[in-house]
## 1
Amino acid sequence: MRIDGLQYCNWSRRVFEEMREGGVDAVHVTIVYHEVFRETVLQIERWNRYFEDHGDLIVRAGSGEEVRAAKAAGKTAIIFGAQNPSPIEDDIGLVEIVHQLGLRFMQLTYNNQSLLATGCYEAEDMGLTRMGREVVAEMNRVGLVVDMSHSADRSTIEAAEHSTRPIAITHANPFDWHPARRNKRAVVIEAVVAGGGMMGFSIYPHHLKDGSNCMLDSFCGMIADMADRYGVQHFGIGSDLCQDQPDSVVEWMRVGRWTKKIDYGEGSADNAGFPPQPDWFRSNSDFPKLEEGLRAVGFDQAGVDAVMGGNWLDFFDKNFGPAA
């Protein structure tokens, strides 16, 4: 089983074909950055057309069993997620609605302060808000996974502690390995895994040691170190692949509607666009190289299987449905 914990590509038949070439069985796709509820529905409409036009390659999924069925049919399962709580606007009742519409992951923040928690680019981290605590409880109830990939430290720790179900960091890396602002400090990772949570390792160059020049053995060595430290069962891939996206999309991701200025996010105008991917992971067809890299740093077959998708599948089984 090969599963990617997050992608935001410029979707096309070529990308879907590369998923099949790489043997990718499921992908958590971002359908929301700053879209409100009605705009989220429009994104689902757009995906329904993808499923109609490319049904020989992809299929919608909202459970572990549907991922298994997709694999058996030789297709890639597509799982919907939001990188912001904007789809629920200021209405807790929409948590259940977006889950019914197919959303399975929702970040409590995207870099900035939200109604729920604090993003990693804010100067002050106030933790979960009153609404944030209520929304986390509602997400737990319906089976919408709490994703803290772009959240600040205190907010992430409080989400892990307040949530009665495991939470996720779908796409980030350890701060100790590469001190990017959005990578996660050890205390944050410890809080997430203590509750049975999952972390997907990102191949987005701003999150990699040595950026676009990061070597496969460095990336896989980092995964091995994390598995030794916390247990392999907590980790997978969350590539954050943004293949074929124009640089203009970065402006929407970082700016949305909250400012009239350009926000350079990672630190400077040099980071205004998408950086080149490492040569060992340019598309979904490169997934087999990750397996080779994991073996090269000492993972046995069981460990490779766990990191490449088994852990995510187990997480889907336990967390995509209503609370028991």
Note: The chain has a mean pLDDT of 96.
## 2
Amino acid sequence: MTGFEQRRQAFGERLRAFRAEAGMTGRELAAALGWPHSKISKLETGRQTAEDDDVIAWLTALDAPESSVRRLLDELSELRVSKAAWRAQLRAGHRARQMQSYDAEHAAGRLRNVEFGVVPGLLQTADYARAVFRTQAELLQVPDGDIEASVRVRMQRQQVLYQGKDIEIILSQHALRHPVAGREVMLGQLDRLVSAVDVPGLRFGVLPEHRHLPNITMNGYYIVDDLVQVEHVTAELTIDDPDQVATYHRLTDRLWQVACEGSAAREVLNRVAAEHRTTSW
């Protein structure tokens, strides 16, 4: 049983405890709510994830106090945040994880990516991606034998840029100040980003240095339709709680208000490239 399944089962037990304390059977509660009894059973045993409306209806039917409703909704919100350790995900190598992203991106209708420390995968060159995979494999002490296959899949993922989807990418200039590889790799990567400014249908922006940001943002993130992925050093969080996802959308909208686009973004990128050419490494 996964960690998420265990937490969902524990949440189901909380629902059952409220019902039992109110002195109602599962069939009586199902009748009061107009639900099939099977739904009561699935929620209580953790075989189905509750929605906010389910919790509200459940506790209202049991005459539970408003404080209990708020507390259980908070617990449900936390349940919807799942965490997967990178070492576990990458134990078999990077390629399988890249294939997951490939499938998710090609099935999605909308992608919104904000990064502060690294060039987003959809805009990486092969050389830059190779350096990122090697660095991550070394830090996490996971296999690095499939790096070339992983790079190929990451390049294949970029086909999604040309499929008419709604795609937005915001990159902080800060991510380009600290090179992940040698000068030529970074210059090639910057050239790729300059060309991204003109990709039809892609909204690409750069957050320039010394510009006031509307909010303090601790990590980059990736919104794939109604899911948010947040990468940390040792784990990846997946968030599907509607309120939290809405907050990430709101943050992205605010960042667009200060991001450079078009010729202004190109100017920032060219300036960074000029600095890389003249800076001693």
Note: The chain has a mean pLDDT of 91.
## 3
Amino acid sequence: MVRNLQASPQWERITEHWVTDDVAADLTDFKSDSRNFNISLWSPEANGVRYLKTLVYDFAERLGEDDWARLRRIRNREFGNPVTVRLNGESICLDYLQAVLELGFIERHLSLDGARVMEIGAGYGRTCHAVLSNHDLAEYCIVDLKNTMRLSRAYLREVLDDAQFAKVRFVEVDDIGVVEQAPAFDLCVNIHSFTEMTPATVREYLDLIAEKCRAFYVKNPVGKFLDKALDGHFKGDEAVRMALRTGPLRKVIDVFDSESVAEVVPDYIAAYTPGRGWHCVAESRAIPWSYFWQALYYKDGSGS
């Protein structure tokens, strides 16, 4: 029997441009170049959104019932057109997937209902949105730079109802005296911003936390990376040099080596301890990132 087994036009094009006649001439790096990207692996440069959605879908499948309940309470989370996947009838993006996991970690060790919460560096406000959607707080105080605060204020005005938004207080860093004169906070939160501040500024904030707060949740990288293949250093060499000088933890590690990460975790726990009389009551890897860690600290005598 004569069989008509021909390459499709798609594969004729691949053969012409990428898997060419000399495909096997040098196999040194073939698993990281266009040959393999056309045979068994999608190119990460061209398929970044596909990989992002795969990451979100995979970790969303691992959420527990309590996590889904937290997520469903967060209304308007699709505002701003995020990159999402749909699972169990719910739309979810990476930001709010992380938010419900962070909130679950905190809830296991600390009661938030009626609490006064301060967040240092709130980004666009997704943590505030998640917490206020799940707990009846007394106040949520955001301390941030002016331009970033303009973003979080505008975003939270869109996604929170009037009663929730009325509980948010916005304090620019130049007006930190407002915080110093306020009553004590039950919890301070910092997520991925201490690593971008000067060590001296981080120390000032930790002193403020030690003075004004009863508990502290922190989620930041355990170190720095220099592998250009991870992001192409797309912001330029000067941005890389500045990043290496910020944060209390500046050791360069292989962020995708579990042993390298584990080795510096004790340094992380020590670096973010606000001061004497504080102790870490819980810590773990901060999913989905391999080199982010989360920890919760109590001030002695504050209890749970």
Note: The two ends are 77 Å apart (CA to CA).
